[in-house]
Amino acid sequence: MHYEMHFKVAGFPNGHAGELMEQYFSDVFDKAELKMVGDSQMMLPSPFHHGLALLLHTVHHMTGEGIGLRHLCDWAVFENSLSNDEFAEMYEDKLQAVGLWRFAQILTQVSIKYLGAEKREWAGETDELADQLMEDILSSGNFGVKDAGRSYQTMMISDRGKDGVGKNGMFRQFVGSVNNVLYLKMPAAKKHKALLIPGWLFYGGRYGVRVLTGKRKNILDKGIVEGAEKRRNLYKRLELYEA
């Protein structure tokens, strides 16, 4: 058994959607259920909290390096464990309020078409957006063998989807992403913005040297930029955290 320790479910959004998510998860421990896992007893989240965690985690990976096969299978098995009416009653209003209902529909359409999950009325008819998402999945995660270029694309797409996708242009998003990295490396820069200038010069210069020596990919490579734009346009149509 392998455990990862987190202070919060990976992928918590910012803004109003994040505030609603805080409310949704406020009783996660109170409603946890004791289950047998193999020969051991474990406290597991209720179905409601379990599904929310899966969706947040999947958005986090999708807008990052990409979804792996396990993420898609996890979702397919989960949504298939609930009847059409059970899922709709449990999630429709709450997911619409945080801007994840469209994403849940499309992810389920992918599960139905490509993994043989049971057809769901709440997911709607499978459309070309599901095919495009599956194409994206096949080029990422396990399938893409963690292509380093996708991590660079991420910096031009969003902050791991936390504010949705498409609110900023690709250049502005890239600048914001680099600033967020510098805040982690130089916490004082959050208070003293002028420190960002030497940070950009030092880390940018170091990155440039590594590109020249072949240790890093060039983020300005045409393929990386075009891939970022294609992914950005796809994720925008999923209406992440738009309510």
- Count of DSSP strands: 2
Shape type = globular
Briefly note the structural class of the backbone: mainly alpha
What spatial order of strands do you see in the largest sheet? 1-2
Rg (C-alpha, Å): 19 Å
Helix content: 55-70%
Number of helices: 10
Q: Characterize the quaternary organization of these chains.
A: single chain
Low-confidence spans: pLDDT under 50, at least 5 residues? none
- In this structure, how is the largest beta sheet organized? 2 strands, antiparallel
Mean pLDDT over the full residue set: 90
Number of domains: 2
- The N- and C-terminal alpha carbons lie at a distance of 38 Å
How large a portion of the residues is in β-strands, by DSSP E?
A: under 5%
Question: Which helices and strands, and how do they pair?
Answer:
Elements (H helix, E strand, L loop, with lengths): L14 H10 L8 E5 L2 E5 L2 H16 L6 H12 L3 H15 L2 H15 L12 H11 L9 H10 L12 H16 L10 H17 L9 H15 L7
Antiparallel strand pairs: 1-2
Structure write-up:
This protein is mainly alpha-helical. It has 2 domains: 15-138, no CATH class; 148-236, no CATH class. The protein has 10 helices and 2 strands; from the N terminus they run H-E-E-H-H-H-H-H-H-H-H-H. Strand 1 and strand 2 form a beta hairpin. The mean pLDDT is 90.
Throw out a few tags for this protein.
10 helices; 2 strands; single chain; 56% helix; 243 residues; 4% strand
Task: Describe the structure concisely.
This protein is mostly helical and 243 residues long. The protein has helices spanning 15-24, 47-62, 69-80, 84-98, 101-115, 128-138, 148-157, 170-185, 196-212, 222-236, and strands at residues 33-37, 40-44.
